[in-house]
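User: Just a sanity check before I run the rest of the batch. Below are the structure tokens for the first item. I only need the designed sequence back.
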């Protein structure tokens, strides 16, 4: 007989992993990072009832179960690159190091802003377009934020436009949202209960069709949150949409 004094209360913690699947081939699983909420939700739509009218009581005679659906949602407080790629349905490319010669920019006034084509730059040399090119001097003719690849002109009176910029650039990760080709994700939650029986469990969603995050906060005074949602697709081999394994 079960012990009625044993608590089965639940306060869940744990790690959430995504595994991308393209063309039936699974990629590498990754931890999505710190999350303050994760949940499965269930719904039934298009239910209908058949009434009997021969008794005069108009009771339910039979019932159509309707269409069952399951969704998964998670609220993230971190922005790990792989999680961001999934959340924004983005393709990601890595830019290698390189050099640029004589990148031209028009300037004609103090305060003009120049955005170089690359970021994370170094070894910057700027000349103007006179017959005998004039070398511009940092902190006299311009200031530069090398990490952002941004130049601001502080002196232009003796400069012939366009200016020409030579520089080296470092590695960078370029993410282009809403362009990915992931078919679906396998989601795994390695969870633990902090109260009650303090048991552990593994929950696996076999085929999760992820929707892009509704909002990407860029400026905020507090820890930014990003909510991801997915429709769970039926997996014929598993005969279910997800499973719960108690440990």
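Assistant: Here's the designed sequence for the first item:
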């Amino acid at each position: 007989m079960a012990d009625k004094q044993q608590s089965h209360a639940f306060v869940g913690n744990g790690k959430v992993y995504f595994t991308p699947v393209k063309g039936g081939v699974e990629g590498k699983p990754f931890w999505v990072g710190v999350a303050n909420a994760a949940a499965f939700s269930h719904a039934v739509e298009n239910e209908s009832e058949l009434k009997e009218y021969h008794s005069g009581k108009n009771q339910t005679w039979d019932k159509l179960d309707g269409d069952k659906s399951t969704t998964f949602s998670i609220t993230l407080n971190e922005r790990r690159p792989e999680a961001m790629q999934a959340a924004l349905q983005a393709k990601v490319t890595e830019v290698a190091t390189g050099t640029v010669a004589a990148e031209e920019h028009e300037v004609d006034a103090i305060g003009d802003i120049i955005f170089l084509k690359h970021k994370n730059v170094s070894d910057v040399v700027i000349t103007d377009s006179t017959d005998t090119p004039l070398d511009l001097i940092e902190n006299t003719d311009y200031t530069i934020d090398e990490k952002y690849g941004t130049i601001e002109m502080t002196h232009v009176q003796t400069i012939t436009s366009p200016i020409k910029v030579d520089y080296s650039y470092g590695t960078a990760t370029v993410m282009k949202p809403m362009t990915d080709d992931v078919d679906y994700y396998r989601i795994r939650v390695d969870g633990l209960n902090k109260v009650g029986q303090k048991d552990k469990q593994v929950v696996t969603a076999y085929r999760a069709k992820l929707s892009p995050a509704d909002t990407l906060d860029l400026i905020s005074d507090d820890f930014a949150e990003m909510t991801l949602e997915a429709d769970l697709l039926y997996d014929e081999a598993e005969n279910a949409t997800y499973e719960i394994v108690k440990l």
